[in-house]
Amino acid sequence: MKKLIAIAAMVFMGVAIAPKAEAKINIQINIGSQPAWGPTGYDYAQFYYFPDYNFYYDISRGQYVILNHNTWVYTRTIPTAYRFNPYNAYKVVLNQNAPYRQNSVHIRNYGQYKGMGGRQTMIRDSRENKYYASKGHPMHSQWQKNNNNGRGKDYNKRNEGRNTVYNNGNGRTTGGVRR
């Protein structure tokens, strides 16, 4: 019985002094670096795949990845022979490294989207505030002015709530800090 109590005490002490488990959550958002012709609905995207043309766009590098003589190469521009317009092309978001290495899988899985260009809402046409961060969005300069205002990125956090009008429930409004 003494051994059982001793073992139980050791187990209890081991649990009591064990370091606490911590979970790290990594949330990535790259809306601001996605081009204006990118599809809405994705806070993060690594690559776009264009099923009509069978090539990719690397968002972090801002370059296309095309097949040239059986080799995938990075390029800033698409040859004119493709007659490519990213605003009229269907895009599949891929979050994987070097997706072109699995091109045959993408051809098979996304071939059904050929000819569906123009059916996606683009970042440029979205009215959601989060897409204003994209440099190609028509509201980007206004968004930038409102968020940076030339005073550093912490300015808005420090001044949050100032110069705001609140309804206090009795038909009257108050300005400044909420009461």
Topology, element by element:
Layout lengths: L1 H16 L29 E4 L4 E4 L4 E6 L2 E5 L16 E3 L8 H8 L29 H8 L7 H4 L6 E3 L5 E3 L4
Antiparallel strand pairs: 1-2, 1-5, 2-3, 3-4, 6-7
Gross geometry = extended
> Number of helical runs?
4
Question: Nearest-angstrom radius of gyration?
Answer: 26 Å
Note the beta-strand portion. 15-25%
Number of beta-strand segments:
7
Tags for this model:
alpha+beta, 5-stranded antiparallel sheet, disordered C terminus, 7 strands, 2 domains, two-stranded antiparallel sheet, 4 helices
Molecular structure report:
Helices cover 20% and strands 16% of the residues. It is an alpha+beta fold. The chain has four helices and seven strands, in the order αβββββαααββ. It folds into two domains: 31-125, no CATH class; 129-175, no CATH class. Strands 4-3-2-1-5 form a five-stranded antiparallel β-sheet, with no helix packed on it. Strands 6-7 form a two-stranded antiparallel ribbon.
